Amino acid sequence: MRVDGLIYADEAMIEEIRRDQAPEQVANVACLPGIQRASLAMPDIHWGYGFCIGGVCATDPEEGGVISPGGVGYDINCGVRLVRTALSAEEVRPRLRYLVERLFARIPTGVGQSGDYTFGSKELRRLMSRGARFLKERGLATERDLELTEGHGCLEGAEPEHVSERAIERGESQCGTLGSGNHFLEVQVVDRVFDDAAARAMGLYVGQVCVMIHSGSRGLGYQVCDDALRALRGVPERYGIALPDRQLACAPANSPEGQHYIGAMRAAANFAWCNRQLILWQAREVFEQVFGRSWVELQMEQVYDVAHNIAKLEQHEVEGRRKRVWVHRKGATRAFPAGHPDVPELYREVGQPVLIPGDMGRASWVLAGEPGSLEQTFGTTCHGAGRALSRTAAVAQARGRRIDRELEEAGVIARARSHKGLAEEQPGAYKDVDRVVEVVHRAGISRKVARLRPIGVIKG
Predict the structure, then answer these.
(1) pTM over 0.70
(2) Residue 400 burial by CB count (10 A; 0-12/13-18/19+): exposed, middle or buried?
(3) How far, in Å, CA of 460 to CA of 179, rounded?
(4) Active-site annotation holder among 328, 383, 419, 441
């Protein structure tokens, strides 16, 4: 190990984490060339491909630092978007079932599903190059949507020509679709506010209805990662890099192989921001139809959109020196504090909003970045609750139960393409997100702003 491994958890949580293979993955990542400070893991840590989910790794390209697709994950720029409304829970409740039915009918969900928005090869390459601004030029996004999206919905330096034809083919009709697995759209209610000033800046208050969207780069991003892992076979050996796990396949970030992946990864990230933007646009259309008012009248304004599967070249202070490092966040969320130049001006005094989805029966959270994140975790915090059960174990545990009925008894209307899908994602399959959030709050890397509880869910 070139650096220490550091896992954020409380005493009870660390016992659960020790039963997983994820701590071994934290140790493996600590062996990567050019790694800085420590191999880090957030309290929602669990096993992933190569790197654990909830992992953070920063590498210095000037010290031979590597870029690794396993440190980003297959779902490049999987992330979360939160939209607020002027509606109260009391106003929505009488139409909730109809609202959920209309959202499920309008927004495609499930494996391989296509949507209404299709882009030819040339258009898709422009979309991947320009990110969400491509959609604004077509009347499918507002300037405010872009301002309140991490990086304005675009990673500069995308190289769509490095994205394979197979990936292009998979992405042509999937922009604006939710996908499967843990991806969702939820209608939520703000049930507690912990930081009045930050909540006020974000336009959040108790009893307010919000919409949370969790999705990524769909089949296109998956294919980009798959292509990269294939292309990197034998590359570490060529550069004299010995790896403890071949799933850590990587290349020096400044090498031709590393730059090729970075260009394609940035393109897939831009696709993902467009995907969430189009899901938002369709949700606005559904709310207009159900409530008989325009989305502007309903004040369906974006609070923020942030990635939690990405690698970005950022400037950080390491051992007293300012360095540009490749920060891999895999199941980990950027959490820049108040005053940081990359935080939107609207939130510059309170810190960057951090969106933490929990599970469909309990809660999700809005946090704000704290100065401790820059001092400890390269400006990063957790990304969700983290799985407590594998999908197979969750389905086995749900045998004979109707998760949709259990959720309805708890006040949540859920629609999914299969009972199995709901069983895999049942609340018991996840850690308690309140406990996860408590750890990062007490660690001083992000602080509690508001807690939201779900009342309507659509899933793949």
Answers:
(1) yes
(2) exposed
(3) 6
(4) 383
Given a contact cutoff of 8 angstroms between Cβ atoms, the answer to whether 290 and 98 are in contact is yes
95 Cα distance to chain centroid: 29
Phi, psi of 193 (to 5 degrees): -120, 130
Cβ neighbours of 161 (radius 10 Å): 11
- Rounded Cα distance, 354 and 437, in Å: 11
Residue 153 backbone dihedrals phi, psi, to 5 degrees: 75, 25
Residue 141 identity (one-letter amino acid): A
Phi, psi of 335 (to 5 degrees): -145, 65
Q: CA-CA distance, 225 to 164, in Å (whole number)? A: 11
Residue 72, token pair as written in the block = 């980003």
Alpha-carbon distance of 426 to 184, in angstroms, equals 12
Q: At what angle do helices 433-443 and 11-18 cross, to 10 degrees?
A: 120
- The Cα-based distances of 357 to 218, 319, 335, 347, 454 in angstroms read 19, 33, 15, 20, 10
When comparing pLDDT for 126 and 116, which is higher?
126
- Cβ burial 38-59 (10 Å sphere, 16+ → b, else e): bbbbbbbbbbbbbbbbbbbbbb
Angular region, 374: left φ>0, alpha ψ -120 to 50, beta rest: alpha
How do residues 130-186 score in pLDDT, each as one tens digit?
A: 999 999 999 999 999 999 999 999 999 999 999 999 999 999 999 999 999 999 999
Strand pairing of 53-59 and 38-46?
A: antiparallel
Listed residue (97, 99, 110) closest to 416, CA to CA: 110
Please return the burial class of 237, using the count of CB atoms within 10 Å of its CB with bins 0-12, 13-18 and 19+: exposed
Q: Is 259 exposed, middle or buried (0-12, 13-18, 19+ CB in 10 A)?
A: middle
Beta bridge partners of 302: 83
Determine the Cα–Cα distance for residues 398 and 323; give it in Å rounded to an integer: 49
CA distance 112 to 99: 24
List the alpha helices (DSSP H) in 301-390.
371-376
Residue 370, amino acid: E
Q: What per-residue confidence (pLDDT) applies to 236? A: 98
Q: Please say whether the beta carbons of 210 and 453 come within 8 A.
A: no
Q: What is the largest CA-CA distance in the chain?
A: 64
State how far the Cα of 213 lies from the Cα of 207, in Å rounded to an integer: 19
pLDDT at 458: 97
- What's the full length of the chain, in residues? 460
Give yes or no: 260 in active site.
no
Residue range 200-217, pLDDT digits in tens? 999 999 999 999 999 999
Q: What is the pLDDT of residue 400?
A: 80
